[in-house]
Amino acid sequence: RGGAGAHSGGKMASTAAGKQRIPKVAKVKNKAPAEVQITAEQLLREAKERELELLPPPPQQKITDVEELNDYKLRKRKTFEDNIRKNRTVISNWIKYAQWEESLKEIQRARSIYERALDVDYRNVTLWLKYAEMEMKNRQVNHARNIWDRAITTLPRVNQFWYKYTYMEEMLGNVAGSRQVFERWMEWQPEEQAWHSYINFELRYKEVDRARSIYERYILFTALVLVHPEVKNWIKYARFEEKHSYFAHARKVYERAVEFFGEEHMDEHLYVAFAKFEENQKEFERVRVIYKYALDRIPKQDAQNLFKNYTIFEKKFGDRRGIEDIIVSKRRFQYEEEVKANPHNYDAWFDYLRLVESDADAETVREVYERAIANVPPIQEKRHWKRYIYLWINYALYEELEAKASKRTRQVYQACLELLPHKKFTFAKMWLLYAQFEIRQKNLPLARRALGTSIGKCPKNKLFKGYIELELQLREFDRCRKLYEKFLEFAPENCTSWIKFAELETILGDIDRARAIYELAIGQPRLDMPEVLWKSYIDFEIEQEEYEKTRSLYRRLLQRTQHVKVWISFAQFELSAGGQERLPRCRQIYEEANKAMRSCEEKEERVMLLESWRSFEEEFGTPDTKERIDKLMPEKIKKRRKLQAEDGSDAGWEEYYDYIFPEDTANQPNLKLLAMAKLWKKQQQESEAAAMDPDKDIDESQT
User: Where would I find the Pre-mRNA-splicing factor Syf1/CRNKL1-like C-terminal HAT-repeats domain in this sequence (predicted)?
Assistant: First the structure.
């Protein structure tokens, strides 16, 4: 029973425990959000702020006897040793431990800690520095030397060890020891600053010769070891010599530097420094030579500072010519950049050549011309060659007028003429300039040969005209006739050529040949300016006083064209011909013209004819003829017509003036009705005006 009771009691206990495990969840009555919301960001920020809160300092402990001190030391050392044992690689724990021992004047213990730390990480620079500083602070000089020796032997590329070591020896007054350390350092071929530190060390003790030898060793080291030696080291060496008044040595250093870098690795800073050194020595001619030498060899884009210093120098010590040379050099550099960017920019070449011609020797000018003409246009189209051909022309004129080299001028002309693609196009100007040059050289056969070749290869109107003009000046009229014949075979439609040919024959007194030429000309099926040709032929016959032939010409011309100007010219000719019959003849021409032009659509031309006829009658006519011509004059009226746009839509109305001739009025009764309507409208307007202004009628009646 007891067992059963126990069993039942255990079961009840477990049931009770089971009931206790179920937590009671409180029911939330108000599920609305709180007025003040707390975010996760706010929680994190508050936690961070509380971390920064200062904890109250530990209570100060006063140690009153040796036992307490030893106990304190023991506890502290145990703490440090535990930290080190937890993480041996954290060097800060070792340093704190050693510094604590140092503060207790336990130098031997601190030294032991540093040695243990170096066994862990001997490459830690801070550890060596702290160790050596501790020894120096406690005046343990030999220990410090020992540590520095170990440091520079273990880590020779850490410059800080060398600097500290040499500084310590110098502070101790051990100049020889410091120099020895520097020498050991230089064997490792350190960076530039280390060499300069050594040089400054020697200069502090007035050891100029030693400093010079160090400079020499450093310059030799940079020349042999470095791939790209720097100019500034040579400049510092030269300034060192200049500072100590060894001017000859300084000049020698600059000259060695110029020779060492050569023309492949020229640097403007070296030449600027060299020039300033010579300027300080009052060697102005040397300065100019240096600047000009550098400017001629250094690429222009790398010589901006050089230009600037040269300009300043010339303004200070030079004359006007020197300043102009600088300006010319700068402009030459700009033009070089332009033609380098675009070799076919012929305008830039023209400006460049103009500059070079004004201030350069003949060889330099020729070189620039050769570079310019080498840029032949890539496309064989005349519009691309029009600017280029003037390079050749200017080149030839320069050789002839400036250089006085006739052979080179001839070569330039011949080279240009060989270059031109004459089958596609040519430049008559070039042929004519060459021929004129040969004439100036009194070499007439070559000039004729050149022009004959041009006409044979690429005949042009301008070439024929130039050749004919040349032969006219030489009074070679037979050659002129032959050339005109060739010219007219080449271009029979050219009226100017026919006229000039006829004028030549007229001047020579061969009237029949001139008339025959005119007859051939007007018989051509196609002419570019036939009206000019006919006028010239008519003027020619008038000059010869062949009036019947002139009338015949006018009649032939009127068979081809009924232009009003031809009729007016014909009438004026009859008026100026003289004789008793001139007025009837002139009036008859006007009559014929008026009849011929009645069917003409251009009414303005007929009006022009009638105006000319009326002017004639007013000067030479009788009252009857004047009245007759007045009756023939048309009436000018304003009309409107509809306009259409290009797409066929209406574009509005346009006003224009039209002419109504009397015979048109007789033929069209509508026009008579229109005139009567206009008269009626005019009378109506007058009557309305009179009704609106009765006072005016009274005044008029009284008057």
Answer: 92-382
